[in-house]
Design brief:
The complex is a heterodimer of chains A (102) and B (355). Chain A is an alpha+beta fold and 102 residues long. Chain A is built from 3 helices and 5 strands, in the order ββαβααββ. Chain A has one domain: Ubiquitin-like (UB roll), CATH 3.10.20. Chain B has 2 domains: 207 residues, 3-Layer(bba) Sandwich (FAD/NAD(P)-binding domain); 126 residues, FAD/NAD(P)-binding domain, CATH 3.50.50. Classes of the chains: A alpha+beta (102), B alpha/beta (355). The interface between A and B is medium-sized, with 24 and 25 residues.
Chain lengths: 102, 355
């Protein structure tokens, strides 16, 4: 399963997703500059990404906790998610994300 | 947190055995291990309370991998560590950032903070996690040049004196408790108060949200689902902003002051300028002493790196214990280190106040 990720410099990376892993973990292990300070606990909003090209609507809806935590992210748009809360599966194969500004 | 505050240079330098940067779980446990060896500690932390990430990011979240504690929250762990180190009477310097480190002719180190505190010690321990917590800065072009513009004008990440905002056109951004609390508290004395947030919903406490909605109804607060795209004016003299909605519509707003409240993020900060060898913002150490490549400067916890490093609290505890042994020989070069167990040593039990 693939993840197409655009980093803060605008460069596109194609990463191999892993079933059950969070998108944040794949981005971090793929060497993209993403802080993810709390390590995936939905507690810091520093793994903020935009979900592109219609993929936002295809994902399971964010939890109340994630929606609340997004209030602490910068430059939030309607297609914003915390990547630690987006889980890779066959359904997310080919997902397109952009790392949000720091 | 006191950010951008001018402190008077006052007190004389404080001499101690060990100066610790960072009062997170690892810095706190270092006090225990050093204390067993009779080394006294001073700790500096930019936050206004102990615990670091444990209390700042996840005070209520359970941790399951602390040996012997099947479940403990971040705050509970910190409380227990504080109880454990109490016999050693560590001295805390909260809301201070370590800003400078220099070697003295006698071989000791002088560590300075932005509050003017000076610690002189033969050993410095960096237990700074990922660095210092700092306010998140919105990605608005040139925002830096409007920071530190003076009382009540420009960009501020904290409110020190409410009075300085009297009669000003104030713009607040954010949806958490800080944002709404300051909307509510500053609205009565502002010339105008505008709140912008990315959605018509808030993570802040319900009663604060209700109060804000009331003020909005009374016309004392204007609320927009929008973000700040640009700041107008000269550096140091802000005159207004461009706001943008999610539909890309843009409009201008007069504002003397812009207060973004998006919580804190972690930046390495001045440690990068201390002259210690760094590798991708981490301090390489040896795994026998956990000393940096600068003798007398140790690094423990998430800030260090070595082959096999795991960023776990339990690893940091181990690192603190070995660091303390090595630190002893620097702080007490003429004394013999006596390795003892707390279970069997009446000498250690006396220090702990239990016998």
């Amino acid at each position: 399963m693939k993840i197409h990720a655009i980093d803060r410099q605008g460069k596109e990376h194609t990463l191999e997703g892993r079933d059950g892993w969070s998108v944040m973990e794949i981005l971090r292990d793929g060497g993209l500059d993403i802080a993810a300070e709390c390590g995936g606990a939905c507690a810091c909003a520093t793994c903020h990404v935009y979900i592109n090209d219609g993929w936002f609507e295809k994902l399971p809806a964010p939890s109340e906790a994630e929606i609340d935590m997004l209030d602490m992210a910068l430059a939030v748009e309607p297609n914003s998610r915390l990547s630690c809360q987006v889980i890779c599966s066959n359904e997310t194969d080919g997902i397109k994300v952009t790392v949000a500004p720091e | 947190m006191k950010l951008g505050v001018d402190y008077p240079m006052t007190a004389a330098p404080i001499e101690t055995d060990v100066a610790i940067i960072g009062a997170g779980p690892i810095g706190l446990f270092a006090v225990f291990e050093l204390g067993l060896l009779d080394l006294k500690c001073h700790l500096i932390d930019i936050l206004d309370r102990p615990g670091g990430q444990c209390t700042e990011l996840y005070p209520e979240k359970p941790i399951y991998d602390i040996p012997g504690l099947p479940i403990v929250t971040g705050q509970e762990l910190v409380n227990k560590l504080l109880e454990q180190i109490k016999p050693f009477a560590p001295q805390f310097h909260f809301s201070e950032m370590a800003t400078g480190l220099e070697k003295l002719p006698d071989g000791r180190w002088k560590l300075k903070t932005d509050a003017g505190t000076e610690l002189i010690a033969p050993v410095v321990v960096i237990a700074a996690g990922a660095g210092s917590f700092q306010p998140k800065r919105p990605p608005v072009p040139g925002i830096e040049s409007f920071e530190n513009a003076g009382d009540g004008i420009g960009v501020h990440y904290a409110v020190r004196k409410m009075e300085t905002f009297r009669g000003k056109n104030i713009l607040i951004a954010g949806g958490g408790d800080s944002a709404l609390d300051w909307v509510i508290n500053l609205a009565p004395l502002a010339k105008s108060m505008t709140l912008v947030h990315h959605r018509d919903g808030f993570r802040a406490a319900a009663h604060s949200v209700n109060q804000m909605r009331e003020l909005e109804k009374e016309g004392k607060v204007k609320f927009h689902v929008a973000s700040v795209k640009a700041i107008h004016g000269e550096p140091g003299k802000m005159t207004g902003v461009t706001l943008a909605g999610h539909d890309k519509s843009e409009w201008n707003l007069d504002a003397d002051a812009f207060l973004p409240f998006f919580g804190l993020t972690i930046k390495l900060g001045p440690i990068a300028e201390f002259g210690i060898n760094l590798n991708e913002n981490l301090i390489p150490v040896d795994t026998a002493r956990f000393e940096s490549q600068t003798p007398g400067i140790f690094a423990i916890g998430d800030i260090n790196t070595y082959t096999g490093k795991l960023k776990l609290i339990l690893s940091g505890f181990h690192e603190a214990a070995l660091m303390a042994q090595a630190a002893f020989h620097i702080a007490r070069p003429n004394e013999k280190l006596r390795f003892q167990y707390t279970t069997s040593s009446s000498n250690l039990q006396k220090k702990l106040g239990v016998s």
